[in-house]
C-alpha cells in the first residue's frame, strides 16, 4: 500500500526517468539505437530499478500511466537525438502485458508519436513471448493496430518464454531479441547451434535479430560468424542517463 501511494506520487512529481542502453552494429561499429529502461529517482532512497517496482505497478494498474510517461519520454528523447544529426536512431520501449490489454493503447501510442514528431518506424515496442500465450486474439488485434501506425514490434528475451513458436506466424513482428542466456558459453557447440538456428529462423521469416547481454570480447567476435551483428550489452555500455548517452553519441560521429 505504502509503496503504491509512493508510486502515485512519483508519477505526479515526475520521479521516473529513463536510462538508455546502446545497440551496436558491430559491422559498422555504429550505434543504431537504444533501449529505454525505467528508473525511479526516489526522493529518499537510492535509484530504484524496475525489479523494485514494476510488479507492483502492474498489480495496481499504475503501469498504464507510468508506461505512458515512459513512451513520451522515450519518443521525445529519440526525436531530439535524431534532430542532432543521428537521423536513423531507433528507440526500444518495453511494453507490459497490462498495457497491451488497454483498449486505448493504439490511440495513445498514436498521440505520443504525433506529439513528439517521431516517425513511427523508429519506435520499437518490446513484448515478451509470454504475452503471446495469453489473450491471443486481443494481442494480435492490438499489435496489428500498432503496426498499422508504422511502429515496429520486437520479441524480448526470445527463446525463454516456453511458448509454442506458432505465434511467430500469427503476430506482426519485426525483430527477435535473442536472450542473453543463449550466449553465456558461445563457443560451446550446442549453444552456437541454437543461436545460428534462431538467426536462420529470423532470416527465413524476414525478421531482424539482435543479441542481448553481450558482455565479452569473445561473444562480440563469435556472434557475427553465427549471423548476428546487432548487439546490446555491458561490453558496449550499461544503461546510462540521457545526458551521458548524448555525449557518447556526439563523440562517435
Ligand atoms: O535494467 P533493467 O534492470 O532495467 O530492467 C529490468 C527489467 O525491467 C527488464 O526485464 C525490462 O524489460 C523491464 N523494464 C525496464 N524498463 C521498463 C519499462 O519502462 N516498462 C516495463 N513494463 N518494463 C520495463
Ligand atoms: O527488457 P529486458 O528484459 O531485455 O531488460 C534488459 C535487462 O538486461 C536490463 O535489466 C538491463 O540492465 C540488463 N542488461 C543489459 N545488458 C546486460 C548485460 O550485458 N548483461 C546482463 N547480465 N544484463 C544486461
Ligand atoms: Mn527489453
Ligand atoms: Na531481454
List keywords for this structure.
binds manganese (II) ion, globular, 20% strand, nine-stranded mixed beta sheet, EAL domain-containing protein, alpha/beta, TIM Barrel, 253 residues, binds sodium ion, binds guanosine-5'-monophosphate, 11 helices, single chain
Instruction: Write the CATH homologous superfamily.
Output: EAL domain
CATH topology: TIM Barrel
Q: DSSP helix count?
A: 11
Give the bound compounds. Answer: guanosine-5'-monophosphate, manganese (II) ion, sodium ion
- Runs in which pLDDT lies below 50 for 5 or more consecutive residues are none
Number of strands: 9
SSE pattern, N- to C-terminal: HEEHHEHHEHHEHEHEHEEH
Largest sheet: 9 strands, mixed
What's the number of structural domains? Answer: 1
* Rg of Cα set: 18 Å
The assigned structural class equals alpha/beta
Q: Provide the helix percentage.
A: 40-55%
Under CATH at level 1, the class stands as Alpha Beta
Shape: globular
What does this structure look like?
It comes from Paenibacillus hexagrammi. This is EAL domain-containing protein. The chain has 11 helices and 9 strands. It has 253 residues and is α/β, with parallel strands linked by helices. The chain has a single domain (2-252), classed as TIM Barrel. Strands 1, 2, 3, 4, 5, 6, 7, 8 and 9 form a 9-stranded mixed beta sheet that branches. Helix 3 (63-83) runs parallel beside helix 5 and helix 5 (105-116) packs parallel to helix 7 (136-149). The longest helix has 21 residues, at 63-83. The chain is globular and about 50 Å long. The model has no long low-confidence stretch (mean pLDDT 95). The structure holds guanosine-5'-monophosphate (2 copies), manganese (II) ion and sodium ion (NA). One guanosine-5'-monophosphate binds next to strand 2, helix 2 and helix 3.
Amino acid at each position: 500500500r505504502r509503496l503504491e501511494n509512493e508510486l502515485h506520487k512519483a508519477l505526479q512529481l515526475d520521479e521516473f526517468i529513463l536510462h538508455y542502453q546502446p545497440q551496436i552494429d558491430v559491422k559498422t561499429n555504429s550505434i543504431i539505437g537504444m533501449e529505454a529502461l525505467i528508473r525511479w529517482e526516489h526522493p529518499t532512497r537510492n535509484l530504484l530499478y524496475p525489479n523494485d517496482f514494476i510488479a507492483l505497478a502492474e498489480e495496481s494498474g499504475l503501469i498504464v500511466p507510468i508506461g505512458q510517461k515512459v513512451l513520451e519520454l522515450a519518443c521525445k528523447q529519440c526525436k531530439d537525438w535524431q534532430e542532432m544529426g543521428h537521423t536513423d536512431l531507433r528507440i526500444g520501449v518495453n511494453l507490459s502485458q497490462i498495457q497491451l490489454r488497454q483498449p486505448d493503447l493504439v490511440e495513445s501510442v498514436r498521440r505520443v508519436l504525433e506529439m513528439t514528431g517521431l516517425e513511427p518506424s523508429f519506435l520499437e515496442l518490446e513484448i515478451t513471448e509470454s504475452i503471446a500465450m495469453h489473450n491471443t486474439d486481443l494481442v494480435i488485434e492490438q499489435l496489428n493496430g500498432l503496426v498499422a501506425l508504422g511502429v515496429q514490434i520486437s520479441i524480448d528475451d526470445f527463446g525463454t518464454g516456453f511458448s509454442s513458436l506458432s505465434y511467430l506466424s500469427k503476430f506482426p513482428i519485426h525483430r527477435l531479441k535473442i536472450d542473453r542466456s543463449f550466449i553465456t558459453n558461445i563457443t560451446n557447440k550446442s549453444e552456437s547451434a541454437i543461436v545460428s538456428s534462431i538467426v536462420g529462423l529470423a532470416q527465413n521469416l524476414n525478421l531482424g535479430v539482435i543479441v542481448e547481454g553481450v558482455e565479452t570480447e569473445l561473444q562480440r567476435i563469435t556472434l557475427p560468424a553465427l549471423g548476428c551483428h546487432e548487439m546490446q550489452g555491458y561490453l558496449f555500455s550499461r544503461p546510462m542517463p540521457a545526458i551521458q548517452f548524448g555525449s557518447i553519441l556526439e563523440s562517435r560521429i
